[in-house]
Write a structure and sequence with these properties.
Blueprint lengths: L2 E5 L4 H12 L3 E6 L13 E4 L5 H7 L5 E4 L7 H6 L2 H20 L4 E7 L29 H20 L3 E6 L2 E2 L12 H11 L4 E6 L5 E2 L2 E2 H13 L5 E4 L5 E2 H12 L3 E6 L14 H6 L8 H25 L11
Parallel strand pairs: 1-2, 1-4, 2-3, 4-5, 5-6, 6-11, 7-10, 8-13
Antiparallel strand pairs: 9-12
Helix pairs in contact: 1-7, 2-4, 4-5, 6-8, 6-10, 8-10
The chain binds nicotinamide-adenine-dinucleotide (NAD).
């Protein structure tokens, strides 16, 4: 049994990861500025609501901890990270700087940083038939957006802490992780969750709106695979950045068609060419992670999407019912 801290433990990957580690019999402390509570059962020993932009909070939560999985970040899907730059860089630099320094001071044995495919340069992602991104492709640097720059900077900061202070670091670069019990509404959701929600909300027959022309490509990794991969990276001897993703490239159109098929509805697609769509094509190369970590994803996209759609459809129905029970007041009276 180890004492493990999962930051971002109220969010999507963090809560699934915390549950996995907790069920393995570890002591798990989950910390977040807010808890979605989409996972209803107990999934950690301690649940602490704390803002990790504050140095003293980082010092408090790392005390007595063997391993840190640092997943806390101010982030969202393409709409959010295209719109918001300063806040994302400001918050995440503070979280990551204080978490690294607190882990050093509290003599944490190992520290994992959750980086992103957004670290990869835009000039390698201009074609939908893109080649899988290898870890070494991150340089010469030209990340996708401010969020990607912050992740790349923090990777370097991890390297510096390792070199100068002997902090044992691990770095995963996640590529589009999806699954149930994650953000599906509110503007921070990613493409699989957003499309599942749109399909679940749309009356049959009807139409959903796709951001962009639908020909942009991505690869998607199911949450259970991502959790196993993350723990395997943490437990491995490999201390350089490594991809955790899938190498099955699909267009957004294909992704939407799969979800529509799962729903059993007869929906058509409209295209919003003004909406943000990110890089034109992005895929993960898994050669390194297979070789160094012995991990590869197992869950087929169709299978993972079915679980995701079913969970989101239930949530959408619950949301609809609660709206009927407690209808929103359209023009609330001013109180002052
Ligand atoms: P998420 O938004 O569900 O989880 C991040 C959590 O961090 C949230 O619950 C949020 O409340 C918390 N957080 C934000 N600011 C905080 C603060 N000041 N103090 C404490 N907690 C704070 O996102 P996720 O998908 O679970 O992502 C987890 C990590 O993986 C993040 O670092 C993210 O950048 C990275 N990542 C995720 C993906 C993906 O596809 N989901 C892809 C690339 C990288």
């Amino acid at each position: 049994m180890e004492r493990i801290l999962v930051t971002g433990g109220g969010g999507f990957i963090g809560s699934h990861l915390a549950r996995h580690l907790y069920l393995q019999g570890n002591f798990v402390r989950a910390v977040d500025v807010k808890f979605d509570d989409y996972i209803e059962e107990d999934y950690c020993n301690e649940k602490l609501e704390m803002d990790l932009r504050i140095r003293d909070n980082c010092l408090a939560v790392t005390e007595g901890i063997d391993k840190v999985y640092n997943l806390a970040a101010n982030m969202g899907g393409i709409g959010f990270i295209t719109e918001v730059g300063a806040e994302v860089m400001h918050d995440n630099i503070l979280i990551n700087t204080h978490m690294l320094e607190a882990s050093r001071q509290n003599k944490v044995k190992r520290y994992l940083f959750s980086s992103s495919a957004c670290t990869y340069p835009t000039y390698r992602q201009t074609d939908p038939n893109v080649k899988g991104l290898k870890e070494e492709d991150a340089y010469p640097a030209d990340p996708d957006n401010f969020y990607g720059w912050e992740k790349l900077f923090t990777e370097k900061m991890c390297e510096a802490y390792q070199r100068d202070h002997g902090l044992d670091v691990r770095i995963v670069r996640y590529h589009n992780v999806y699954g149930p019990e994650g953000t599906y509404k509110g503007g921070r959701e990613k493409s699989p969750a957003a499309l599942c929600r749109k399909v679940a909300e749309t009356q049959n027959p009807g139409a959903i709106t796709i951001w962009g022309d639908g020909k942009q490509t991505r690869s998607y990794c199911y949450i259970d695979d991502a959790v196993i991969g993350t723990v395997m990276v943490m437990e491995s001897d490999y201390d350089k950045p490594v991809n955790i993703g899938s190498d099955r490239l699909v267009t957004i159109d294909e992704l939407a068609d799969m979800i529509i098929k799962i729903s059993g509805k007869h929906l058509t697609k409209k295209y919003d060419l003004k909406a943000p769509q990110g890089v034109r094509g992005r895929n993960a190369d898994l050669t390194l992670v297979r070789k160094k970590i012995g991990w590869q994803p197992k869950v087929r996209l169709e299978q993972g999407l079915e679980k995701t759609y079913n969970w989101i459809e239930t949530k959408v129905n619950e949301d609809r019912e609660s709206l009927t029970e407690f209808p929103e007041i359209e023009h609330p009276a001013k109180l002052d």
